[in-house]
Amino acid sequence: MSKLKRAQRIAIISRMLVENPSNVFTLSSFSKKFGAAKSTLSEDVALIADAFQKEGIGRVITKQGVLGGVYYCPHFSADKAYDEVLKVSRILNDPRRILPGGFLYWSDILSTPSIVNTLASIIAMEYLNSEADFVLTMETKGIPFAFAVAHQLGVPLLVARRTSKVYEGSSVNINYFSGKGSLEAMSLPKRAAKAGEKALIIDDFISDGGTALGMCTLMKEFNVHIAGMAFMLSEDPRKVRHVSGDISLMTLSRSSEAPPYVQPAQWLNERRSKE
What we know:
Layout: H1 6-19, H2 27-34, H3 38-55, E1 59-63, E2 69-73, H4 78-92, E3 98-99, E4 103-104, H5 107-110, H6 113-126, E5 134-138, H7 143-153, E6 157-160, E7 171-177, E8 183-189, E9 198-206, H8 210-221, E10 225-236, E11 246-253, E12 261-264, H9 266-274
Parallel strand pairs: 5-6, 5-9, 9-10, 10-11
Antiparallel strand pairs: 1-2, 3-4, 7-8, 11-12
């Protein structure tokens, strides 16, 4: 290809980094692609990193060593993260979303890419150093959110299903008690995970944590460690849960005296005061 100008290189490198978060690109690969010296490309990356930081787009990090290079990771200031979650909370507090029985309609939120990607970036920030090998979720509503988190972390997504599929080969199957107290099944192909790996559990909602505990139990069958658990929405005040150490972006309060109310999780507000 013909030699590109600096502005053109910067535009292409920026897109490559943002579209492949957490994936390391070496200066050698850039040099081969653009036919430019590593020192020149290092200056290009520095300009991109500075612009991203000033605009709050994210961070471009340089990794030293033989396997070093540069990679992009999501970053929100504490104030911006809180504001983004607050914006979604206000959407969910629209009285027209209240369904019979005190339930809340939010399927459209879970399927709106701009919202899901923003919230997933906030969660991914919390687990950038978790060394998770994959993200695990339970079908089906949490899949878009879990996929977005996996993309930001640059790891695969595994989906536990209620029944095994013949095209996935032999599977590990467990039974667990759901939040409704009923006995449910959970299945994952044997070749999906390897012993010693780390799983980050991501889902859309947590109440008493029955499903989350089921995923933890499933990972024990694979000898996989839990790197963390995160949810878009959790029920508050917290019930006695089957799991601990989880975080959520928003909390849902429900009572017989008041309509459902969603607000940003307390830890997001506390983070603002510390920054």
